[in-house]
Amino acid sequence: MEAGARGSIADVAGVSVGHCTLNDGDVQTGVTVVRPHDGDVYRNKVPAASCVINGFGKSTGLVQVDELGVLETPIALTNTFGVGTVANAQTHSACEINPMIGRDRPSVNPLVFECNDGYLNDMQAFAVQEAHYRDALAACSQDFARGAVGAGRGMSCFELKGGIGTASRIAHIEGRTYVTGALVLANFGRLPQLTIAGDHVGRRLHAAKQTKIAPEQGSIIMLIATDAPLDSRQLRRLAMRAAAGLARTGSVYGHGSGDIALAFSTAYTVAHNAAFIAMPPLLADAFIDPLFQAAADSIEQAILDALFSAESVTGRDGHRRISLTDALKTQP
């Protein structure tokens, strides 16, 4: 399918991304923030839903998202041991803008996703601090780095260097044009599984390494944004199609992998105190297939983007992950 102008999740109008990267010897980690719009997400929530493909994960905020069908903070990504700190940072940030949260107003639902970057990063250093969330939030822009940056700094993918990847696709439905964008935190997969456009690249790379196949212990967080008018029920269906894109790259959603997708729409917002919700006409389910294809295609491309964008990184105890680009240079 046709890609948007930037080839990123920011092709969905209003969406922006920021990173804070920690790169210091054994500390190889960070925070990535995705803003669904530039305003106060607590006051003007966006419709959303998640899909847990394999639940080996420690994210926070998903229960309320799936119950109420909205986001009320930016989306944050970090390492497993940083979830609590980043959730506190989100709560503090929301309370500074809305001082009555938890007093005369309901509490806020921080939304933090994680992957385990412990191979390259010393997670027991607890290096991620609240200030790093604030720095990533302040850095949000339509133009942002990819690869071994932000939350993706210490991540591994198919036993190669993983990280942040993004892509977008354009769908044409009944004379209208809609954009679907994806951003992934890629930290999953075994090398022999790696498949690129149907080519089993990983098998050749694994044969050259002559190493044992280790159990799956990674994760992937997949975010899908769209400007199509969908409700939370339809967004959960859209999030589910992330699994199709993930599977195309060779993943089988291993036992130890936390594979989680979240989809949100920017077509309308839900005001915090509104008695009624002003919504545009929603897309009928019978016409939603192009968005399903766009979601699957953009997730697949975003994973490849993470692999091709990442640089080789040496981290904790001298552990090293070579980039896909460097690995391919060794092949005939």
TrEMBL record:
One of its GO terms (molecular function) is aminopeptidase activity. Keywords: Aminopeptidase, Hydrolase, Protease. The keyword Metal-binding does not apply. InterPro entries: ArgJ-like_dom_sf, Peptidase_S58_DmpA. It holds the Pfam family Peptidase_S58. CDD domains: DmpA (cd02253). It comes from the Bacteria. Belongs to the peptidase S58 family. This is Aminopeptidase.
